[in-house]
Amino acid sequence: MIQLSYAACDLMTLGILALVTSTGCASANALQSLTDAMHIPHLFVQRNTGGSPRTACHLNPSLEEEEYTLAARPPVRLNDVMLKLVTELRWQKFIVFYDSDYDIRGLQGFLDQASRLGLDVSLQKVDRNISRVFANLFTTMKTEELNRYRDTLRRAILLLSPRGAQTFINEAVETNLASKDSHWVYVNEEITDNEILELVHSALGRMTVIRQIFPLSKDNNQRCMRNNHRISSLLCDPQEGYLQMLQVSNLYLYDSVLMLANAFHRKLEDRKWHSMASLNCMRKSTKPWNGGRSMLETIKKGHITGLTGVMEFREDGANPYVQFEILGTSYSETFGKDVRRLATWDSEKGLNGSLQERRLGSDLQGLTLKVVTVLEEPFVMVAENILGQPKRYKGFSIDVLDALAKNLGFKYEIYQAPDGKYGHQLQNGSWNGMIGELINKRADLAISAITITPERESVVDFSKRYMDYSVGILIKKPEEKINIFSLFAPFDFAVWACIAAAIPIVGVLIFVLNRIQAVRAQNASQPSPSASSTLHSAIWVVYGAFVQQGGESTVNSVAMRIVMGSWWLFTLIVCSSYTANLAAFLTVSRMDNPIRTFQDLSKQMDISYGTVRDSAVYEYFKAKGTNPLEQDNTFAELWRTISKNNGADNCVSNPSEGIRKAKKGNYAFLWDVTVVEYAALTDDECSVTVIGNSISSKGYGIALQHGSPYRDLFSQRILELQESGDLDVLKQKWWPRMGRCDLNSHTNAQTDGKALKLHSFAGVFCILAIGLLLACLVAALELWWNSNRCHQETPKEDKEVNLEQVHRRMNSLIDEDIAHKQISPASIEISALEIGGMQPAQTLEPTNAKGE
């Protein structure tokens, strides 16, 4: 303690604005005297000793007018919580165990109030060697005394460290001093979830745990940003286990520093900053810091929200805000080890919840329960009602409720929530919708498509989930685009242009090579090649080879063979690639919607999307989209669109409006996948489809009042319905696999193939029709051209030709030159027009082999 005072003096010599410490009560008293004398604001955080529960730390009153020590950690309120608990449980006789680290003076107020209530309270100190404690009981007590002690042990409060409490319970169970109807109450501000589970599993009977909790903001930004200060995700994220590993005193230390930083910032803004002074507390003549009083007032007026919740100071220098939760196990054999929150207690509202022990049988015979609901297809819908009769309801949730009512033997009266909402916490802390009906005790249970969320579980109880929950995307099926010229799609326009250019180029090359070969053959007196001698004939041969219809001529030249071989190889590759690409294109055209995930939805800009305002889905996207620690920016993009203009642009007021908007097109509705699947299955036009995304591990459950005795019975019967398959039968009833509409038609690729429709090959038929029409047109033009030429030639008598003489002369020439001569086809090629132009008396002169 003296060393601590010396250390504080050394800091004051350097010059400080305030002092933050975390010590025991004795050291705090010494530091209080020092800081009061030097006028240095002192934020004191009381630290636990040995893991035992904390007792009140009474600081010495200052002789000065102003006390400079502020208690950052709230006063000990465990006595108030324990007194409320034993009152609710209606205990008349119980025993309190405490260890050597616990200051028994902290129980004085509790014992005084218990005495005024007429309660029989026993106290027993537990030695560090707990095994020896129980051994002494058996050696010093007789059998009758042990039986009385065992009866006293049925109701016990443990003021021990977590490890000591577990050892104590284990020894009590092993020595047969604990029974199945024992009720252990463990009280400690600091205990982790793992330590609670170890206690519960060790205990025989019922276990109740009281510990301090800290409220968390729903908004992730507010969680990690406190007073313009960013907090590490290890501390602000409740899912991180690191937060529970820290001692409560360390959390208050963090918030104390945050409070000082806030005070310094306001001092700088107000321009009332007092410079630090070097103080020597060892000299009696040293004057206190003249800026201490002003700094103390600034700190007292501060208000922050830190890791421990709200921190501010009253006039007496204490932080009043503290909250406890009361955890416990139920009496059900099936859920005997199921730990749940029974109630909460805070310094302003007191107890919230019920702790009374209420045993139930295996059924609810003779009970009539009040049920609140909200219409949501296909969970709850209004059935056709008879005039004058009460409203009747139908749906999946109603079928589940009927099955439970038949199984447990209760009756129910059902009504709709006045505001038609599930339940959302308002700014003033109250709840609306079905959750508000349960909190205000107007209903015993709530059933519909209500999801189990941590926020709702903090104020009401939920049964086991009877159906899994996920968010889906309801979107209009894309209209099938018909492209009659889809046969050109496998190749790009540039490829088609190159192919179209290659055909005449190769045709010209073949024509040139053919003429060269013809000249060489004529000079060498060899047979002439049989390929066409005209350009259009050569192009026709190339085109025939390209469409795999073969050629009409024999290729004798090596150069021609190289050209044709290259062309055939080119044709083979092009045709094979075209066939494969066409098959792939026709397959891809039958694939699913391009929007298959939330990531796809966030990347596109053509389709707007949204959900129901102030719903669980809305809050989910808000939490994910505003979380600065989220690595994937998908939810940030989604939330930016959903929250545009505070949700007025893209969000709807109820699910029915969202479904109607999605059916109209150009809108994607984000909602419970079970609801939108039912809407898609029952759509008259089958115009919408559902894209499912399992983004949450939540489920649908039955909500009950906080501390309701019916919770375990409902949970047990729901599990029985799941195991027997009855729930699957009900699901098939409302979500049939083979319904009116096929949800997979635009969501999955067709694995079993599908016949090609006419529009896929309409382009082929169009090309054929164009070719036929073009051929008819060309034929008509040729006929017209020939008829006009005939009319423009010489008179008929001048065009007569002695054809018999021509044939006789040609035959004679062939006979004469058959051994040595060859008639070149080019030398006797006479068209019909040339024959018509010959004179009747004209004769053919013989031509020798040399062409003379």
Automatic annotation (TrEMBL):
<feature type="site" description="Crucial to convey clamshell closure to channel opening">
    <location>
        <position position="595"/>
    </location>
</feature>
<keyword id="KW-0812">Transmembrane</keyword>
<feature type="transmembrane region" description="Helical">
    <location>
        <begin position="493"/>
        <end position="516"/>
    </location>
</feature>
<feature type="binding site">
    <location>
        <position position="451"/>
    </location>
    <ligand>
        <name>L-glutamate</name>
    </ligand>
</feature>
<keyword id="KW-0770">Synapse</keyword>
<dbReference type="InterPro" id="IPR019594">
    <property type="entry name" value="Glu/Gly-bd"/>
</dbReference>
<keyword id="KW-1071">Ligand-gated ion channel</keyword>
<keyword id="KW-0472">Membrane</keyword>
<keyword id="KW-0407">Ion channel</keyword>
<feature type="disulfide bond">
    <location>
        <begin position="9"/>
        <end position="281"/>
    </location>
</feature>
<keyword id="KW-1003">Cell membrane</keyword>
<dbReference type="InterPro" id="IPR028082">
    <property type="entry name" value="Peripla_BP_I"/>
</dbReference>
<protein>
    <recommendedName>
        <fullName>Glutamate receptor</fullName>
    </recommendedName>
</protein>
<dbReference type="Pfam" id="PF01094">
    <property type="entry name" value="ANF_receptor"/>
</dbReference>
<feature type="disulfide bond">
    <location>
        <begin position="686"/>
        <end position="741"/>
    </location>
</feature>
<dbReference type="GO" id="GO:0038023">
    <property type="term" value="F:signaling receptor activity"/>
</dbReference>
<dbReference type="InterPro" id="IPR001320">
    <property type="entry name" value="Iontro_rcpt_C"/>
</dbReference>
<comment type="similarity">
    <text>Belongs to the glutamate-gated ion channel (TC 1.A.10.1) family. GRID2 subfamily.</text>
</comment>
<keyword id="KW-0325">Glycoprotein</keyword>
<dbReference type="GO" id="GO:0051963">
    <property type="term" value="P:regulation of synapse assembly"/>
</dbReference>
<keyword id="KW-0732">Signal</keyword>
<dbReference type="Pfam" id="PF00060">
    <property type="entry name" value="Lig_chan"/>
</dbReference>
<keyword id="KW-0628">Postsynaptic cell membrane</keyword>
<comment type="function">
    <text>Receptor for glutamate that functions as a ligand-gated ion channel in the central nervous system and plays an important role in excitatory synaptic transmission. L-glutamate acts as an excitatory neurotransmitter at many synapses in the central nervous system.</text>
</comment>
<keyword id="KW-0406">Ion transport</keyword>
<dbReference type="InterPro" id="IPR001828">
    <property type="entry name" value="ANF_lig-bd_rcpt"/>
</dbReference>
<feature type="transmembrane region" description="Helical">
    <location>
        <begin position="761"/>
        <end position="785"/>
    </location>
</feature>
<dbReference type="InterPro" id="IPR015683">
    <property type="entry name" value="Ionotropic_Glu_rcpt"/>
</dbReference>
<dbReference type="GO" id="GO:0015276">
    <property type="term" value="F:ligand-gated monoatomic ion channel activity"/>
</dbReference>
<dbReference type="InterPro" id="IPR001508">
    <property type="entry name" value="Iono_Glu_rcpt_met"/>
</dbReference>
<comment type="function">
    <text>Member of the ionotropic glutamate receptor family, which plays a crucial role in synaptic organization and signal transduction in the central nervous system. Although it shares structural features with ionotropic glutamate receptors, does not bind glutamate as a primary ligand. Promotes synaptogenesis and mediates the D-Serine-dependent long term depression signals and AMPA receptor endocytosis of cerebellar parallel fiber-Purkinje cell (PF-PC) synapses through the NRX1B-CBLN1-GRID2 triad complex.</text>
</comment>
<feature type="domain" description="Ionotropic glutamate receptor C-terminal">
    <location>
        <begin position="368"/>
        <end position="737"/>
    </location>
</feature>
<feature type="signal peptide">
    <location>
        <begin position="1"/>
        <end position="28"/>
    </location>
</feature>
<dbReference type="GO" id="GO:0098839">
    <property type="term" value="C:postsynaptic density membrane"/>
</dbReference>
<feature type="binding site">
    <location>
        <position position="672"/>
    </location>
    <ligand>
        <name>L-glutamate</name>
    </ligand>
</feature>
<feature type="site" description="Interaction with the cone snail toxin Con-ikot-ikot">
    <location>
        <position position="622"/>
    </location>
</feature>
<keyword id="KW-0675">Receptor</keyword>
<keyword id="KW-0813">Transport</keyword>
<feature type="transmembrane region" description="Helical">
    <location>
        <begin position="567"/>
        <end position="588"/>
    </location>
</feature>
<keyword id="KW-1133">Transmembrane helix</keyword>
<feature type="binding site">
    <location>
        <position position="456"/>
    </location>
    <ligand>
        <name>L-glutamate</name>
    </ligand>
</feature>
<feature type="domain" description="Ionotropic glutamate receptor L-glutamate and glycine-binding">
    <location>
        <begin position="378"/>
        <end position="440"/>
    </location>
</feature>
